[in-house]
Amino acid sequence: MAYEKILVTGGAGYIGSHAVVELYQAGYQPVIVDNFSNSEESALQGIESIIGTSVPVYRVDCADESALRGVFAAEPNIAGVIHFAAFKAVGESVQKPLAYFKNNVGSLLALLAVMPEFGVENLVFSSSCTVYGIPDALPVTEATPTKPASSPYGRTKQMCEDIMHDVSAAPDNKLRTILLRYFNPIGAHDSAKIGELPLGVPNNLVPFITQTAAGIREKLTINGNDYDTPDGTNIRDYIHVVDLAKSHVVAVQRLLDHKATETVETFNVGTGHGNSVLEVVQTFERVTGQKLNYSIGPRRPGDVPAIYADATKAEQVLGFKTETSLADSLASAWKWQQALADKK
């Protein structure tokens, strides 16, 4: 068992909270940094309930270099960092581009400034398939060219990747980075003690589906049915959040074991299969028995028609492969939504 200390920025968020659980269960000591601008305190109770102990939490804005330095000083011997902290809604980024650049790029710059001061050389970065823009061919591999992003959110992820490549090329660089390009995380922990907790109206499809089924939303609006796809709706690669969390544990271990063959390594983290929005809706209805009220609306700015992963490299190099089906992922999301209702 490993006992290395891993700093998890955005560790109270959707993906971060699941990663904290997986890290702890793999024998690591997670330390959470989160300013709770896009997460809930209740996630901490969920984590504690699952793992049976509390985790150190620092309520800090990751873009605040001075405050971040204080965390590193208070937590000696950090072996690595997983950087989740970022704004993540494509549509919102079109409305608030400056906030996205300031937060997403600013937090990485602060982290990269502070890590060397404390001798921390291992970083797993939360990237996104949005860096591919609108790809010419599917599925996308890690060698697929990155094209102009379709949203400011996607551009922040491209910028962050570029920054890490430039930092790694510096003569005195000791940083080793793994970029994990996520596809679409969905679902919740089997315990239904942690899951996706959107603040206000959800930006992501699955929580909007579950909230509609629960009667919180009057209806689901599908954003466009005139895309060049088999049923006209967007196609995405939906990965269960626990599978995604486990990929971070594998990536951290690769860095700590000094197995990385380049200063920056990149991996797609997806199922390797695309599903349309309508397929997701119909699968949810089938596995839960809940009939959804939905209608077709206009396209959403920043959305690409279709994207899904070639996940071969992650399987061959990281030894990582997803395990959970779309049906089981959606069932876990509904179980989580019901658990939320029971708490009220």
Automatic annotation (TrEMBL):
E.C. no: 5.1.3.2
Keywords: Carbohydrate metabolism, Isomerase, NAD
NAD(P)-binding domain ranges (all copies): 7-328
Organism: Hymenobacter humi
Catalytic activity annotation: UDP-alpha-D-glucose = UDP-alpha-D-galactose
Cofactor(s) of this protein: NAD(+)
Gene3D superfamilies listed in its UniProt record: NAD(P)-binding Rossmann-like Domain, UDP-galactose 4-epimerase, domain 1
Pfam families: GDP_Man_Dehyd
Biological classification of the source: Bacteria, Pseudomonadati, Bacteroidota, Cytophagia, Cytophagales
Oligomeric form and interacting partners: Homodimer.
PANTHER family: UDP-GLUCOSE 4-EPIMERASE (PTHR43725:SF47)
Pathway: Carbohydrate metabolism; galactose metabolism
Enzyme class: isomerase
SUPFAM superfamilies assigned to the protein according to its UniProt record, in alphabetical order: NAD(P)-binding Rossmann-fold domains
GO molecular function, one term: UDP-glucose 4-epimerase activity
Family statement: Belongs to the NAD(P)-dependent epimerase/dehydratase family.
Protein name: UDP-glucose 4-epimerase
Coiled coil: none
